[in-house]
Structures are given as C-alpha cells and as structure tokens.
C-alpha cells in the first residue's frame, strides 16, 4: 500500500496529472509567472495562447498549470469567453498580506501625509528578489504613469527612482549580484545600461536620494528616498511620481526633505520579521533554467 501511494505521488510530481505537488518545485516559478502575467493583462482575462507566449511556455504546460491553479481557486475561467483571470481566492490572499503589523500599515499614515502635503502620488516599494514591488500607493490629483502602475506591480531593481533608491543601499555583495542579473533586463529601458546604472547608484548613495528624469516615461519625473533599517540597509522606499513640470530644481529640495523625514521616522520601527521585507537570497535564482526563472 505504501509503495502504491509513493508511485501515485511520484506520478503527480512528474506533471503527468497536471498537479503541482510539493516535490515538483520546478513548476512553482512557472505558476507564479502565469499569475503575474494574468495580473498584468486586462481584467476580462486572457487566452492560453496569450499566456503561453507571455511566459515562454508551451500551451500544454500552460494549460496544465492553469488547471491546477483553478482547482485551488487562485485562477478562474469564464464559461462563455473561456478566458482565464485571477480568482477570488487570489485576492483574498492578497488582502491578508496587508496585515496590521506589516510594512503597509506602518507606512500608510506617511503616504497619506505626503500625498496631502505635496499633492502628488506617493508610492511605497519593497525589494522582492531582483525586483521592486509596489506595496501601497496614495493617488494624487494629477494623472501620471509609473513603472509599477499599481499595488502589486513590479519592476527590475534599478529601473525608476524607487527601485534605484533601494538598490543603492543594499549590502555590496547583494547589490553586485542584482546588477549582474538585471543588466540584460533593463536594456530595453532607453539609455539604461551597466555603466549608466552604476553611475546612478553612486550618485544616489552620495545624495541619499534618487531623483532624475531618465526620459523613459515621457513627461514624467520622480524622486525617492530609501527607508533604512537599523543597519543602514534599504528595506523599502518612499517615492513621488509626478509630472516633470512639477518637479523642478526649485521644488526638489522641499520634496526630498519631506520624504526623508517620513523615511527616517519609519526606519527604526520596521519589523525585521515582516514577510514583506524578507529577502529571498538572490543567488537562489541564478542556478535556475530559463523556464524555472521566467517571470
């Protein structure tokens, strides 16, 4: 009986039944890649062909993973259109992630104060692997575009002022590993290359904040200040996103000072056990295959 049970579990882990068992950990990055792609697409949903192309998987593999996610309530399929979209359980989990003792709750008052004082959109970003993720935002009155777009959006560390502020104040070894991994990813953003990125990092470390309009998002500008823990390591960043015309040299010092005050007040209060600030070891991704790492 034990042998049959083992064989059945091994069959599931091999992917033959379409399940995602714990032993088949190689499927997890693919599943998360599909979830991120669904989140980035229209609310009405997406077809298997679209998702397979977006994450670089075959349609068969994509379909099997989607069926497993549907079984868990994380993804759902519209009966009429046959489009796939994020399920109710996904949003329930997302809501639970913003627990009262977490980074979002700690920083929310600061976001509201900055938004009211400056009349701008304020973002809270945190590190997630090789990316920066938007944990929260407070929208200002001006229509803007940003790299993360909304809560849950992510961008490679080094792209945009918020992620640059985080990257610049990470431990040197961790920072170097991220730079090596992200340089190929950021080449599609205008003038961004390794020389530019390293120059900007040194500039940010010298100033204590990130503020430059790279021209990638036309007409937009931003400034960000890192939130540092007790060791001086960045755990998050407060960022302002606004129209370029509203962030001239005459206004920049005042904006930076307000951001810095809030960041310095938050830093000593950060919870080192907050899951939103847990660092996934960067080197853990470097040994993966393209399919396993796709995101």
Automatic annotation (TrEMBL):
Region (Disordered): 1-22
Coiled coil: none
SMART domains: HTH_ICLR (SM00346)
IclR-ED domain mapped to chain residues: 82-272
One GO BP: negative regulation of DNA-templated transcription
Listed InterPro entries: ArsR-like_HTH (IPR011991), GAF-like_dom_sf (IPR029016), HTH_MetabolicPath_Reg (IPR050707), Tscrpt_reg_IclR_C (IPR014757), Tscrpt_reg_IclR_N (IPR005471), WH-like_DNA-bd_sf (IPR036388), WH_DNA-bd_sf (IPR036390)
Keywords, in A-Z order: DNA-binding, Transcription, Transcription regulation
Transmembrane segments annotated in the record for this chain: none
Pfam family, one: IclR_C
Gene Ontology molecular function: DNA binding; DNA-binding transcription factor activity
Domain HTH iclR-type intervals: 25-88
Record protein name field: IclR family transcriptional regulator
Organism per entry: Trinickia soli
């Amino acid at each position: 009986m034990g042998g049959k049970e083992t064989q059945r579990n091994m069959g599931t882990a091999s992917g033959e039944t379409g399940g995602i068992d714990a032993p088949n950990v190689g499927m997890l990055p693919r599943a998360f890649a599909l979830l991120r792609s669904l989140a980035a697409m229209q609310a009405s949903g997406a077809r298997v062909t679209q998702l397979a192309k977006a994450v670089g998987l075959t349609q068969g593999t994509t379909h099997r993973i989607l069926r497993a996610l549907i079984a868990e309530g994380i993804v759902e399929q519209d009966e009429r259109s046959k489009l796939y979209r994020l399920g109710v359980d996904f949003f329930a989990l997302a809501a639970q992630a913003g627990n009262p003792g977490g980074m979002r709750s700690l920083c929310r008052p600061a976001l509201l104060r900055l938004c009211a004082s400056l009349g701008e959109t304020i973002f809270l970003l945190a590190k997630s692997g090789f990316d920066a993720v938007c944990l929260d935002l407070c929208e200002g009155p001006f229509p803007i575009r940003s790299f993360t777009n909304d809560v849950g959006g992510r961008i490679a560390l080094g792209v945009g002022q918020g992620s640059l502020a985080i990257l610049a104040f990470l431990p040197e070894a961790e920072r170097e590993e991220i730079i090596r991994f992200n340089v190929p990813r950021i080449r599609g953003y205008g003038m961004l290359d390794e020389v530019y990125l390293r120059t900007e990092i040194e500039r940010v470390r010298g100033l204590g904040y990130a503020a430059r309009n790279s021209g990638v998002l036309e007409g937009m500008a931003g400034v960000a200040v890192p939130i540092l823990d007790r060791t001086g390591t960045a755990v998050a960043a407060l960022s302002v996103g606004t129209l370029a015309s509203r962030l001239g040299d005459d206004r920049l010092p005042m904006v930076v000072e307000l951001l810095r005050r809030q960041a310095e007040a938050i830093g000593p209060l950060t919870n080192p056990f907050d899951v939103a600030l847990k660092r996934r070891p960067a080197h853990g991704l470097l040994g993966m295959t393209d399919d396993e790492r796709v995101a």
